């Protein structure tokens, strides 16, 4: 089995940093009312800035696919021994792609203008990025490929626009569950990518991956983060 190394990392953060005081200027105030729990959430999480791929008019500045591709390009630009044509495998992770079909990896593959290669799309919550990384890791470790890209991207601000909640009569008054408000003031947009190889960089620092342990406990615990249904109303 081959050793596996992260030989470069890239990122893309859209727009300028958004301070805590500006969050509702971008996401909007549900029902025209400021959040009652925002201050508590921000005091607890201690996050000072967010990045949003929307502007104050709530227009998208990028797609999720574009952010992922820009992060990949950044990772390739930072790598001194691998070019795009050397990559044999691409694994992507995201919570929600721009389209239902095709898979997110297909869209990122095309947008990043990568050569013909094997791809895999991973979808879910935060763990989807680690699932993509492990997929790339195993392909290198097994000898299937010599170089691979793992990429994770999120465009969640478009899910938290005030208009999304106002369209649902139950939330039109501006009052949403604490868990929903919590996510609105926690999450932001952006993408990251890593290039994995079966040998370290000759000139720069490389990180050897010893192991990646991903386990699901969905069989033991109730779902805590979800979208598309109400657990209270199973109609």
Structural notes for this entry:
The protein is α/β, with parallel strands linked by helices. It has helices spanning 23-27, 38-45, 64-77, 104-111, 127-141, 162-166, 178-184; strands spanning 5-12, 18-19, 49-50, 89-94, 118-123, 147-154, 190-197, 207-208. The chain has a six-stranded mixed β-sheet with strand order 5-4-6-7-1-8, sandwiched between helices. Strands 2-3 form a two-stranded antiparallel sheet. Helix 3 (64-77) crosses helix 4. The termini are far apart.
The chain-level mean pLDDT equals: 92
Radius of gyration: 19 Å
Main sheet overview: 6 strands, mixed
**DSSP helical segment count:** 7
Q: Assess the beta-strand content as a share of residues.
A: 15-25%
* Morphology: elongated
In N-to-C order, the SSE pattern is EEHHEHEHEHEHHEE
- Tally of DSSP β-strands: 8
Helix content: 25-40%
Low-confidence stretches: none
What class would the helix/strand composition place it in? alpha/beta
**CA-CA gap between termini:** 50 Å
Strand order of the largest sheet: 5-4-6-7-1-8
Descriptive tags:
26% helix, 7 helices, 235 residues, elongated, two-stranded antiparallel sheet, alpha/beta, six-stranded mixed beta sheet
């Amino acid at each position: 089995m081959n050793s596996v190394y992260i030989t470069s990392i890239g990122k893309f953060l859209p727009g300028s940093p958004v301070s805590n005081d500006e969050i509702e200027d971008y996401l909007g105030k549900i029902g025209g009312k400021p959040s009652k729990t925002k201050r508590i959430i921000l005091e607890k999480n201690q996050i000072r800035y967010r990045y949003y791929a929307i502007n104050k008019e709530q227009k998208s500045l990028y797609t999720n696919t574009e952010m992922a591709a820009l992060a990949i390009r950044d990772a390739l630009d930072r790598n001194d021994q691998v070019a795009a044509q050397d990559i044999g495998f691409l694994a992507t992770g995201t919570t929600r792609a721009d389209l239902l079909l095709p898979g997110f990896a297909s869209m990122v593959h095309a947008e990043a203008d990568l050569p013909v290669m094997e791809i895999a799309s991973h979808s879910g919550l935060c763990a989807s990025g680690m699932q993509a990384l492990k997929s790339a890791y195993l392909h290198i470790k097994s000898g299937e490929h010599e170089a691979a890209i793992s990429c994770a991207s999120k465009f969640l601000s478009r899910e938290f626009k005030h208009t999304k909640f106002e369209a649902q009569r139950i939330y039109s008054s501006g009052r949403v569950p604490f868990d929903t408000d919590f996510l609105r003031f926690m999450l932001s947009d952006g993408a990251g990518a890593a290039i994995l190889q079966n040998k370290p960089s000759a000139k720069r620092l490389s990180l050897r991956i010893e192991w990646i342990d991903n386990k699901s406990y969905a069989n033991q615990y109730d779902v805590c983060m979800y979208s598309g249904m109400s657990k209270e109303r199973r109609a």
